[in-house]
Queue: 4 jobs
Job 1
Amino acid sequence: MSAVFWKELADHLGSKRFVIFFFLILIVGGASTYLAAQALSGMQQASEFIYLRLFTVSGGGLPSFLGFLAFFGPLIGVVLGFDAVNSEFNRGTVSRVLAQPIYRDWWINGKFLAGITALSIAVASIILIIVGLGLYILGFPPDGTEISRTAMFFVISVVYLGFWLSLGILFSIVFRQTATSALASIAVWLFFTLFLYMLAGLIADQAAPVKPGVGADVFAKHESIRNLVLRFSPVALFEEATTAILIPSYRGLGIAALLQEVTIPTSPLPLGQSLLIVWPQLVGLVALTSVCFAISYIIFMRREIRAT
Amino acid sequence: MPVAEAKGLKKYYNGVKAVDGLDLVIEEGEIYGLLGPNGAGKTTTILILLGLTEPTAGEVRVLGHNPAREPLKVKRLTGYLPENLGFYDDLSARENLLYTAHLNRIPEREAKKRVDEVLEMVGLADVASRRVGAFSRGMKQRLGIADVLLKEPRFVILDEPTSGIDPEGAKQILDMIVRLRDERGMTILLSSHLLHQVQQICDRMGIIHQGKLVAQGTLGELGAVVESGEVFFEVRASRVDDALIDALRGIEGVTVAEREGDLIRVKATSDVRSQIARAVIQCGADLLELKGHTYTLEEIYLRYFQG
């Protein structure tokens, strides 16, 4: 399997599209972080967890780095995966490679692992560059909590991008044409990043209409239905999970949390407690990624290798 | 022990019979030509031999292993050149071969040595560092043969090795195949729809049509069958006994009548279906099925193989 892994990794890292997307995210991320740092240095009291705020604070009209990663990250994942298998079918390399003494699943596992590794390298280097930029602008190093939370952020991001990678691989197995699988991936991406948010609001409006004069319970119901629908989206799961990790005082979602905030002090939570809050989201993300890969695996193992 | 052996091989794709009861034996050190028109089941047979597709029914042994159960053992000893051969266009010829070597777990130093050797052998040594994307069809085909030889197989399967190649290039490839047998003692199975092109180099040939092996033997043997213009029938009767077989043998034009389970196979020089039916009824049995192969070998030969 290592032969497949190293070849695919070399292909990814050397491919033009990977380099293009890497620099796109790097430039956008760098710009938004720079602006965030500018905005932060203007504030007097914002010295707590300032490195984490580099990722979440937006400034100068640009969204935060977190927002960019949630929105554009899927594209990197999909781009690495959407032609993983069908392009090999189209080029006629499948039967030649599978005639070598390797098990069929080594091949697809190797491809997936190489994709994940390439994504990890990309995310890690972007985060490190941003922290370096912060170091340059702010002039003091991050503390232990910030480092551990940033590491956690890295892990969640890789799982999130891994979901999109496995979605791309799934489509590359289901669809024979690379163009079709690319379009299908982009359709799913748009659905989850844009339409599901509208849809969630729509469903919540229908189920629990919020009109003037209704009680707090209707508000709560409206909000919980909206969140329930959004939980199906990996984008929303990722945003929730990373918000809790990067904003230590974050205590959860929903109207209950909003109401309690008045009475409960907003002191930061330890990392373990933050993780506890978003544990369901994390499990959900990992599950989505695994299910997606498992489906690709099963379909691929049963696929006839005929070069048609 | 034969290098490859298949008995009663069947493969159905969604009810379509790609291979339908094929028997095949390939002996050590021979070049066996699997010949037939497109869609006859050649590639499917090859994929089953390699363990890339599981047969619906039948037994297969390749170098003593069952390819469906022990695909790795078979693939380690078998080289395969697919019909629509593809390489990674962005990589050079050498890099493509090195990848194959790595997949075969050949140690790095040995791999480099072997890659240079096989590139030299197929005459691509001076373009080894060029991107495969820039290669011509014939060069790719030769690179494919180098790719097959890399793992030093005992058994080589070549699917349509000369199709789409100009006569000069085809001759080079055929010469190379003969050298593999003579110099390296490899057993070779090659499939083709171009009988006239490969007939000179094949020790034995099998003609495959609609998933069945309709004739097998050396060129001379096949020629004799073709000239005799024989027709084949399958008879299924409610009761099969020696009297019936004798009666069938007595029909004018019938050369062979053999019992095979509850089936009788009849060879004749002309269409004798009505006589067969009468013979069965006269023997006191019911005729359950009478299948005539509507083609003769000659028809197949003329239609598909005279190019």
Job 2
Amino acid sequence: MSTSTVSTPAATAPVEKRSALAPLGKPFAVAGGVLGIVAALLPWVTFSLNDGNWPDKSTLQFFDAPFAVTGFRWHVLLLGVLVLVAAFAPVPSRGRVVRALGWGLTIVSFVNAAYITVKGGGLAAITALDGATAFGSVVGLIAGVLAILAGYGIGIEPVGEWKFKVSTPVAYLVLLVSFGAVLYAVAAMLTTGGVGASNPYAGAIFLSFLGFAGGVLGALSGVGFVRWLSALSEQHRVFSVIVLAACALLLPFTDAGNEYWMTVAANIGIYAATAIGLNIVVGLAGLLDLGYVAFMGIGALVAANFSGAATAHFGITLPFPVAAVVAAIVAGIFGAIVGSPTLRVRGDYLAIVTLAFGEIFTRSAQNNIGGITNGSNAIPGIPPLSLFGAEFNKSISIGAVKLPAGVLYYVLIVLLVAATMAVFANLKFSRIGRAWIAIREDEDAARAMGIRTGKMKILAFLIGATLAGLAGAVFAHKNGTVSYESFKFLESVTLLAAVILGGMGSIPGAVLGAALLFVLPEKLRDFEDYRLMIFGLALILIMRFRPVGLIPDAHRRAEMIERADENAEEAHVEAKKA
Amino acid sequence: MSTPVLEARDVSMVFGGLKALKGVTLTLDEGKIVGLIGPNGAGKTTFFNCLTGLYTPTTGQVLLKGNVLPGDPAQVTDAGVARTFQNIRLFPSMTVLENVMVGRHVRMKQGPLASLFHGPAYHRGEKAARDRSRELLAFVGLNNLDDELSRNLPYGDQRRLEIARALATDPAVLLLDEPTAGMNPQETEATQQLIFRIRETGVSVVVIEHDIKFIFGLCDSVSVLVQGELLVEGSPEVVRADPRVVEAYLGKPPEEVEHEIEAAKGEQA
């Protein structure tokens, strides 16, 4: 099968809409692309705003070098050029690509325009003032809308499918470059707009960048590249994981390599690891768990009490690896206990049971029931980890390179996430993983296939909780304080949202979901009061327009897995001979 | 013959005040195909559920090769009784191959540790399961569809996939619940051939079906269930000739029904 697609006239309504726009598809795309480029070369603000000039020299008075485009203007320029390229180059499912780029243009223009309007106190800031014009954002918006319409005009065809195979070295190169680009994008995303309140326009810069990144990603996905890449990385799983881990470990050497972002990235990592664990329970086995963060709390509490902190209760101090294993085991045991009622309850009722468990945990911890949580006083003063005398929360230097404080925590957490991913991936492609998915799909049929559903469900809870407990142990040392406040219902819901947002059953999805949900609040400090509202709104929109999640579980190609199996088998045989 | 491969002894099932089954007895000898027919609400599916461990009979017992079956569907499958469902119940978002590999679940040795750390044993086991699954897919006539999602298959192929999945559990007895429901005559014919071939591999089969013609052409023996009771049991010829069956199953036959039966007889002959 090639990339050629048979356009099937579906329901009548879309066909009419398409036919009205169809002749305008290409002209609109060309106009959108040109206008996008023009917008990048225009000024965007008519006067200096109170909080300082709008970034990237886009204010009229300072618009001395129109062709020296940077920042968001560079993004707009790039999107415009890409729209033009897509309009003329023979790309598969052109409509999708142009539409995605159009959305990128629209979002970038809108975010900037909205911020400028609000900060500048009215529309005068973005349009004409005393004869001076700054139509950048207006032109950009028009370009975006035109490109979106052009997308519909050209027609939304199925995502392109790339069937061509590449040799292993080429595949490695493609994966290297792609993951390198991902690393660059992550570093850029973290650092755009600077740290917290240091730049008054941080929120705008970040959101604008998100719009740009989203547009480009949408185009890549529309053209079929993302699907092809995920199939490729599935085929070279081990290599992908190594490269991905290496990329993650390189983050401290990028612009994001300062203490602040190391801390944020480490926190994201902890939640990402927990989200992957939750993904086993929810994504694979299909068991809705609304109290999952409690297992992380249990792990954190156990580790805290073994940490040698002044207020710890167990009276013995265990080295961190041992404490972490104990924490994971204890959390796992609780997981199995919570899992047992699931033998009897299904669906909504199970969600209520887990919700209740989460609540029991929070309340017991709050009231210091069992006497190991210190209630609302929490367990402070948990000593930071150290290895060979290097404390994890201090900065270290390797040779001449000085790495920021917290980098060792970051490294530890990257390894934790990698280990969690490996556990998830290996389980997913195994007898147990298949049994879980079968239970998720049809529990009665799964039982009729000889799957002991009860045992399997408890196992899912147990493994998920173990991973959460492990993450919790790292969390305790990383933050230095363990309080019940960190493990409330909202955290459970956020984790669940991360899993569903990213795509159930998908590892990159869970990581991306966790990253978005825990970076966004950091970046949206401008909004303070509206933060959760915007957050909720974004969730609703994503669920409406992309219910499978941002990175859905790319369906694996069995033949590729099989090749990996046979290679491993051969390698084993050869190793025996040698 | 020695012990029958599957034997239901005096199985009764009571739901509250409703007697769904009243002392039903069924014997399946090795390498035979037994048909189970009866009007709607006769208790066929209830009886099936007793055979597959979904229900535990109120009285009576079900024996597989002389051993009492456990009262749990998973363990029954493990013991060697596989089934398909009246309304197809595949795992819709798994691929064709994965669906069959789920069927291999009970016959695979892979434990949690092997699943967690993919060692050589894991790879060997997976390969064996995959090979066997492919073999079965070829057996039911679903070649080169491995990576297709099962929900995307045409109806008839879904039925065959369900049979392949059931066969993947290496059953001694295969229970088919209305395998030709919704099929056209060609597909029905193909299904009949498939069931004959399954019997040739040494698997004994029990079939529930509404299509009398299909049952009479397929089965070595037919049991008629009416209102929870076994009305007649015997070879297709015996059952077909029994006036009680015609009456119970079809009511007082009007002209057309008689014609239809005549036609069925004609085709059988």
Job 3
Amino acid sequence: MHEVSIALGMVDELFRIAKDNHAKKITLVKLKIGKMSGIVTDSLKFAFDAVKLEHHLLSGAEILIEEVPLVYECNDCHASFNAEDIYFPACSECGSRNLKLVSGEEQNIESVEVET
Amino acid sequence: MCDVCGCHDHSHNHGHETRTVDVNQSLLKANEDAAVSNRKHFDELGILAINLISSPGSGKTTLLEKTIEALKDEISIGVLEGDIETDLDAERIRAKGVPAVQLTTGGACHLDSSQIHRGFHSLKHQLNGKKLDVLFIENVGNLVCPSFFDLGEHIRVVLISVPEGHDKPVKYPKAIRTSQLLIISKSDLVQHFDFNLDKIKKDALSLNPSLNIIVTSAKTGEGMEEWIKFLTNLKKNRKN
């Protein structure tokens, strides 16, 4: 359940962002979470919704999560494809396992909406 | 939700301005920043830092005890011990004549880089100015969460013991993908379990083709020489 630690780190980061932007409240936090980031988005949302109530700055903040699909590019034939099989993907065109991960490991804060 | 009037409409305002700030940074930025600063600090002091992760009971502390027995006359070793409670493991390490600091997380299932920063400064007090060659960080026993937190280590070593089963790499891919060495421990028990050594190696290498793998037994001594050689080579290569 590392999602609680991640939510607590996010709270610290949001305070910093609020200070830099002279914000009185944060109303919306947009996240990008990759399918292979290992973060359970429901757990992260649950943890954030619990900890935000302790802070006036964040008590009304909604969290919006965009899940990023797992995309690989083949190093042999250069095809790019979405992978359903997370652990042992093979190229959908040539079957090669010599692949480069293009997206799916994201764990980012994209943007926040602030009230000033 | 708007906490002034309880509505779900963000388009109206209550006399204050709303605007969007682009952030585009990692959720784990605070931990990552502290990890970078730890690694820089270790580099300046010429210390090789190694993060050991595994499930509880895979043999991390035993591996450390055996490593200290083999190397303590040649290199100076320090240990940061992570656990939820107790300083039992730090006591085991100190009994081998090596300085150790226990980091108790009080419930958290992993160490983070700010704990390592504080722990390393406590360790320095115990050293009394003596130079350290290798710092081992024994993470909290857990194959999931520690793999998310860079501590500022140079090398991450993951242990999987034979009784845990050969399916662990595919069940815990992040631990495998973020490590440079897999130690398959308690190999003396292979005959008592349905453990497929070829399968675990193949699966682990599919997840991480550059992974090193060493099969060890602290009981019979299998693989210990290879592990010690791996360590001394790492240390030597960093000096060059």
Job 4
Amino acid sequence: MLRVIVRRLLQLVVTLIALSALIFIWLRNLPGGPVDALLGERATPETRALLTKALGYDQPILVQYAKFMQRVLTGDFGNSIRTGEPVTEVIGRAFPATIELALAAMIIAIGLGVPLGYLAARYRGRLLDNLSIAGTLLGISIPIFFLGYLLKDVFTQNIHWFPPSGRLSTGLDNTNVTGFFVLDGLLTREFDATADALWHLILPAFTLATIPLAVIVRMTRASVLDVLNEDYVRTAEAKGLRHKTIRGRHILRNALLPVVTIIGLQTGALLSGAVLTEKVYNWGGLGTLITDSISGGRDYPVLQALILLAALVFVVVNLLVDLSYAVIDPRVRVR
Amino acid sequence: MSDPITRPGVAAPRDGADPTGTGERPASATERGIGRLGDRKKARLDELARASADKGGVSLVRDAFRRLRRNPVAMFGAAIVAVFILVAIFAPLLAPHDPAQRFDELTKNLTVDSIPGASSGFPLGSDPLGRDFLSRLIYGSRQTLFVGVLATLIGLALGVLIGAVAGAFGGWIDNILMRFTDVMLALPALLLAISLVAMASKSSQWTVILAVAIVNVPIFARLLRGSMLAQRESDHVLAARALGVKQRSIVLRHMLPNAMTAVIVQATLTLSTAILEAASLSFLGLGDPDINRAEWGLMLGVDGVRYFEVRPELAYYPALAIIVVALGFTLLGEGMREAIDPKNRR
Amino acid sequence: MQASRRKAAVALAAAAALAVGASGCAKSERDGDSGGAKTGGTFVFAGASNPKNFDPIFNDDGESFRPIRQMYDTLIQNKPGTADLQGALAESWEHDAEGKVWTFHLRKGVKFHDGTAFNAAAVCFNFDRWYNMKGAAAQANMIYYMDVFGGFAKNESENAGKAVYNKCEAKDDNTAVLTLNQYKGAFPGAFALTALSIASPEALKKYDADTVKQNGDSFEYSAFASEHPVGTGPFTFGGWDKAKGEITLNRNPDYWGEKAKVDKLIIKVIPDENTRKQELRAGTVQGIDFPAPADRKALEGEGFNVINRPAFNVLYLGINQKNPKLKDLRVRQAIAYALNRQQLVQTKGPGGTKVADEFMPDTVLGYAPDVQKYDYNPEKAKQLLKEAGAEGLTLNFYYPTDVSRPYMPNPQEIFTVLANDLQAVGIKVNGVPRPWNGGFKDDVQTFGKQDLHILGWTGDYNDPGNFVGTFFGRAKNEFGDQGMTEMFDAITKADGTVDEAGKKAAWEQVNRDIAAKWLPAVPVWHAPPAIVVTKDVKGLIASPLTDERFNTVSVG
């Protein structure tokens, strides 16, 4: 077991180093870059040369990479070119924003999706069922950024129910603890800050929830329909059990199993949607960060760190899952 | 770049015999692990693959087609798709004007903060540059179809290649290839596309097409492989093998054609997401930079958003077109999937 | 279709609205000071991106300068609303006949925010600091200094030239004498550059201002630049909350000039122009910069105050003479005649845009009223092309994507229109889009890969050299104009003329010759950028140089 872990960890390190080298060299071979971004129209050959030298871009790429790795090993990913802040800070700030948004969207998607899916299945073929099917189909066919624009237009410009963008009202004097603004407000007992954060959160979360909501409704519906046809449900009915008991103990419990799996697996779709939603609502999360880092002047340090972070999370999770399988599943262990 | 990750893990068993007898290779621990995020996609793909591989032969296709025709929802989808394709083909006949031409009648009243609406000869008014909006919408169907179909085809071709190789040979080739596709499958599709566009030195229509295509490669690869694996143990392949038919022609003549049913179903569904993804890239500023080209995603993601307050129609019409067409492909694709699903055979 | 979902959404929204009502109360109690008084209160202004830091000399972009302008002063400043000069920290100034010795008579009784006195020694400390700056990282950040003074005491890059600066002496407490090695047309306008603002010597020393560290791909600035900026301006530094993208500045009660009317100024960073507009409507900000041209009319209709800054910029169509066909003046003229700039201005120009006949706005000294004009004339264009034997010409037209500049709000649309015009006279255009920071400037300015391109410039100070000199003062790959020595000589001579009347005449002649004889590019338009504030914001004076100081602003 220990040997396995060590070997996998070594593999992980090798993978990350190879990946970082590849990304580093690739990004630096793209046309344009930070010197362009920093100088604007004002670039003269002199200032360009000075900046290229100051940033060390005149050195061989492998030297640059070695320096980069040296810093990374001390936990220093450099500073963002756009804002000058340490990359770790920039990402550390964007991360909770995206998680908060994604969690809220998931809560909405589950909270609405499961009951709706269940009801649709129970009243199969009736108006509610047809409406929910139509709704979910529309939900997966509508470009999510367009939906975001529509919602924003209606709820912030026509009827002023929600703020148009951002995570908190300007000038609100709140205390930042975790970066999750809703949680922060609760922790510091600044309940107005929590309310304000929630108020900002609702519209983006609804927008982002569209696709997972559609998927969950359909999945729940299909799953409940499957279970309804199962023998044990029929048996239970025949036994004369109360409907409530059947519903709770038999149908829902069994039907929800695949739904629960699906919920966990919506992460990818959620992150894709987050990029678009964050741009519509100027949310300031990872999605905004990655698009801004690309179009706003190829912010190498941020891009590198983001890609590496993604790879790291991915590889580590993979490793953990592997190991946990080895622990849990005797069959795998035997092999 | 994913290659080192795809190296089979220690816990991965050698792929070999198929003890479960379902035709599906038991998910190895590593495979399950790495594919965690993509499990749902995978499960669905595998199911689809099995369904289509269940029974070979023409009768299956005919059966499925019959069932499809009896499904009004699917037929509705098919009608949308048919209209869309017809409009795309006959765009030059249908469009009242040249989509690239600027008209004095329209530019006369055009300013940066006011775009003329309907007038005689221009039923939907002007676009932001004084061109006929209706003609651009009609021609837009062509470019949209072009981007969608090409992205799907390229994704399909690469995916089929990988999937067929993996499915036909099995063993360590399969292991490596599938590990690779699982990694890609687990990445959020749009993020993958964004990264690909960002990594391209210059963006063009082709970077968009390729980015969307590559996102779909693992989907097709996994689908095809599953289907081929299922068939490896099926009667008609066993029979062929027993008759001494060569491996290559078994793959090409027997396994591949049968697997294609599932692939075509998936391609139909993919067309819908491809169109949506291309629009998303345009919105993020990573799409086709040539605004001269009439393409719905571009019209919605660039002009539509920019002039949303000046003339929301510039967003509404392309958005509506995209929604309807995406819906059409989804309905048709799901209808097809249901039709080939053995559970629905009666 | 989506009724069920919508209904649920509405219900939830209603619940949320209740919660909002509650939070709204708490909030208004919290910042109750934003009441309706004429003075006092908070002015929240939305900018487009994060500032780099708050040390004036290490910055070169408008978004960094916005807060810097509120905290610092320059020796000379632009008269509010114009590009003309007036005294600031220096009440008056004069120079010798050669333009090499500049004497500044300083304002008395001015104090820096840290309580130290502003005097001639402080002025010279700042000049010496710039001139003696060490380290490639620090020097590389001094873009404007390089532009004006050309070099350092010790250059870190072999490309930099000899310094224009010689020395600065404090003749007495209130007289600073600056000696230059050479006169440049940039003076005295350049002394009004925000980058050359005067900072507190004590604070500069205390917070280690000269330290700029290169860290990987970027720079780390000193505590002075990021946390303790100290100048003489109408506002003092309050704080920079990067998480919320807010810079807070407080009223400086001891300001030497017109004291700020508001107690607090918040500069909020909102990168997306659409979002800026919506925040303005929602009332969370009272002013925004750079509204989308398409939104201006709508905002005006809703009662917002849309203020057009006088245009101090130019958009041009660059022509690259590396292509032998384009070396022929007739072909370049044909291109100029082919462009329907009047129509472009009408259909795509932000309100107040004018067709450009010269490469600088008419408010700049040396603008010639009588240059050769190229009014839209496709027939003449065709004829000229025929004479030059350049029919069936195919040109690579580079244009930027991913960018919006005040002079070029939407490059893709501008390209499409211009290309259309060229195609109409038989020039085949091959459009090449390149991301602004992803190769456009490299390809166009460094490598000169293009035949045609669009680019522009926003002026920094009132001097023709800052416009025409920047473009055509020397050979550039951008225009492939290495052979046009006559033009370079004429510009160098004009730039070196000290006497004002002579300078004016020289530049007027340069402008005439550029239009008639040289035509290295075609000026397209001057587009005024706008600034928008709510109705109750009074006293904001828009500047052609975006040099707005918010001390005159009151809210409510």
